Amino acid sequence: MHGFDDIPRSNTDSEEFSGPWYKELTRYHWFVLIVAALGWLFDTMDQQLFVLARQPALADLLGVSPSDPKVLTYGGYATTIFIIGWATGGLIFGWMGDRLGRARTMVLTILLYSIFTGLSAFSVGWLDFAFYRFLTGMGVGGEFAAGVSLVAEVMPNRARPYALGLLQALSAVGNMMAAGIFYLIFGFANEETGVAGFSAWRAVFLVGILPAILALLIRRRLKEPESWVKARQAEKDLKASGAKPDEFHKQMGDIGEMFGDPRWRFHTVIGVLLAMSGVMGLWGIGFWTPELVRSFVPVEDQQYYVSMTSLLQNFGAFFGIYGFGLMAGMVGRRPAFLLSFLAGLASIVMVFGFMQESSQIWWMIPILGFSTLMIFGGFAIYFPELYPTRLRSTGVGFCYNVARYLAAFAPLILGWLHGLFMAPEGSSRAAEKLSDLTWLSSLGGVDTPFRYAAIALASVYLLGVVTLIFAPETKGKPLPE
What we know:
20 helices, mainly alpha, Growth Hormone, Chain: A, globular
């Protein structure tokens, strides 16, 4: 990486450049994009390892069979705790990204999520397992704000949406890696001795410690963006001038300014509502496909089909997320968001309403992944464009992660809706574990409470559609300063 310090690292004006966006990138641009993409890729790998290993881990820790209702209940608890940790880390490290620097914060968060994913393998009960998931979530949440702020500020203006879309799309590769790891470990682990003395689910979490190596390799070569360095210096100069506190308005990471200035406050409300729609749709419904598949696939085939489901879902997600970047660059952010929300709603109705055969997994699940995850390409592109340099990491972290606090209750709402749609106890349909509703069966589906609960919760995408009426369009505009 010798010579990178001589290459401009600022966000540059490239309106007159007519070639492909990637031709504008220097060696250092590529270095930053690759490092940030790898950090986010491993971030999503660690979170997906949890999604896949959640059921066998909790069954083992609780001492019950994987089909025991306690596993679903405690799985909801653990998922909620993980998302709360994600939100907490996003807020704390988002602020630190403005105060400490994007590069330093990103390295710190990679170390955090790696170490505590590895420690999850040594859990002795569901409580310490959930505690490790909380701390892992803090690192996962913090990495996003620092990473996308770093890339947004380094990339040329025209290349920015495409680069950020590619960064977010590679998160799907991390999820696919997790599916491959899960399948290999569970497929070849010995039932009695596991892998090197570790049970299969524990071995899965041990793999999650590997991204720490990336943090150690990049920590000295990654520099802070020029715009952040200038903003930080301006803050120091203002302090040195002896400005009074009421005159000292433009602090790095100043949450007071973010809510005190009407423009940034409005952008924050828009960002939170958009993020809440997408995050609740994915974590409240989209990432429960393993449980859906297990409900109709024979026990002996479940590990294979659950692994394939994750792989196919994220295969579709890669194209959906990158597709958002292409749409955002060509037609604008708002039209891309609108298509994403409507596609997310339609795909959940299709999959959770009507997928009931293993052969349907191969085409329905990629569509679900494309539709429910393409929205997240929008978050990486749009949120950095809503804030100036001094508030960018704080604002991105706040939008994405306050939404996670609200979305943390989505798995619990899903469980509540499941109970609401159950047939009355003692009835014949209750004995068959069906709902009293017959809408799905009349259209060729299956009337389980879980399916109705998922479809009902998918209405959260309509919140995103309504929010777009008020959202500003940022296509073709430089980052605010």
